[in-house]
């Protein structure tokens, strides 16, 4: 007995994905078109790219950052006035990070894009493998996130980047919005809103913020991009993991939950920004990086200046 294949809603080819939230079955061509259309719309709406820009891409070597680099190269790679540069951060996590940096090098070589690799060891004199066993107030992910973000920004500033693209997908954005709600962290919610120019901080862009994680993985697979399925050994400590599980369960029962969270947040973000304006930035007295107080978060966590 022949199994009947499901056809694409837009043509007569076999579907490769069913988007439960949209009710659409899509073939390979129309799935790729759908992903790229959403990304172009996101860039146009939130992060308009002008002439003579340098776009740095935080490249971990996993599916999200690799897809971000690949798509930005597809959109802007042929423009002589736009330069795209990959920045990879080696946090010093044995058995995890060396493989992904190798993937990042392979991809940038294939695309003909410059790659800069910086490490926690050279910048902070320590690694995540040394920080993780220490007695500490916060989870390993908090340390890693703050230190990595700071080093990415510093490196992007050094190369004169006008934008810093990161691979946050729809799942990441929805998780962060819900996490900030549950913690009552309004200042972080304000910082999550579409970015404004702030001196000392390279404007961050998130081209994948409208693309579900599973669709990023499928897009990466179809284009033979690194998938990086091996998880970070310290990720189990984060509250985000619990939020991720909860949101995924909601999405199964109520398709479109993640999009609804993001859409709702985007509608109120302007009001939040007016009610809680971001403070002017100072320079950290230890490292000189832009921050809201005397010490930046990275120097506070590393207990510098004590």
Order of helices and strands: EEHEHEHEHHHEHHEHHHEEH
How many distinct beta strands?
9
Please state the average pLDDT score: 89
| Parts with pLDDT < 50 across at least 5 consecutive residues | none
- The 3D shape can be described as globular
Task: Explain how this protein is built.
The structure is a single chain. The chain has 306 residues and is of the alpha/beta class. The strands form three sheets. The chain has a five-stranded parallel beta sheet with strand order 5-4-3-6-7, sandwiched between helices. A two-stranded antiparallel sheet has the order 1-2. The longest helix has 19 residues. The N and C termini lie far apart (74 Å).
Descriptors:
306 residues, alpha/beta, 9 strands, five-stranded parallel β-sheet, two-stranded antiparallel ribbon
What's the gist of this structure?
This protein is 48% helix and 11% strand. It is α/β, with parallel strands linked by helices and 306 residues long.
């Amino acid at each position: 007995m022949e199994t009947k294949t499901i056809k694409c809603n837009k043509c007569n080819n076999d579907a490769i994905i069913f988007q439960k939230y949209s009710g659409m079955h899509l073939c390979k061509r129309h799935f790729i078109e759908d992903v790229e259309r959403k990304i172009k719309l996101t860039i146009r709406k939130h992060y308009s790219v002008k002439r003579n820009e340098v776009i740095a891409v935080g490249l971990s070597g996993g599916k999200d950052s690799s897809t971000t680099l690949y798509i930005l190269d597809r959109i802007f790679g042929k423009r002589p006035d736009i330069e795209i540069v990959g920045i990879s951060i080696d946090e010093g996590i044995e058995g995890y990070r060396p493989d992904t940096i190798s993937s990042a090098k392979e991809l940038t070589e294939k695309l003909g894009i410059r790659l800069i690799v910086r490490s926690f060891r050279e910048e902070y004199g320590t690694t995540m493998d040394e920080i993780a066993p220490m007695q500490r107030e916060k989870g390993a992910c908090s340390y890693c996130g703050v230190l990595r973000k700071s080093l990415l920004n510093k490196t992007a500033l050094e190369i004169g980047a006008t934008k810093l693209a990161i691979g946050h997908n729809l799942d990441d954005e929805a998780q962060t919005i819900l996490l900030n709600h549950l913690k009552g962290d309004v200042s972080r919610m304000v910082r999550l809103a579409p970015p404004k120019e702030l001196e000392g901080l390279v404007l961050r862009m998130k081209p994948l913020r409208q693309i579900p994680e599973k669709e990023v993985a499928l897009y990466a697979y179809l284009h033979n991009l690194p998938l990086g399925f091996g998880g970070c050994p310290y990720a189990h400590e984060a509250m985000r993991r619990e939020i991720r599980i909860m949101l995924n369960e909601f999405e199964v029962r109520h398709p479109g939950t993640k999009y609804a969270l993001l859409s709702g947040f985007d509608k109120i973000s302007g009001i939040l920004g007016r009610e809680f304006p971001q403070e002017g930035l100072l320079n950290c007295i230890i490292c000189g990086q832009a921050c809201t107080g005397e010490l930046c978060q990275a120097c506070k966590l590393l207990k510098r200046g004590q």
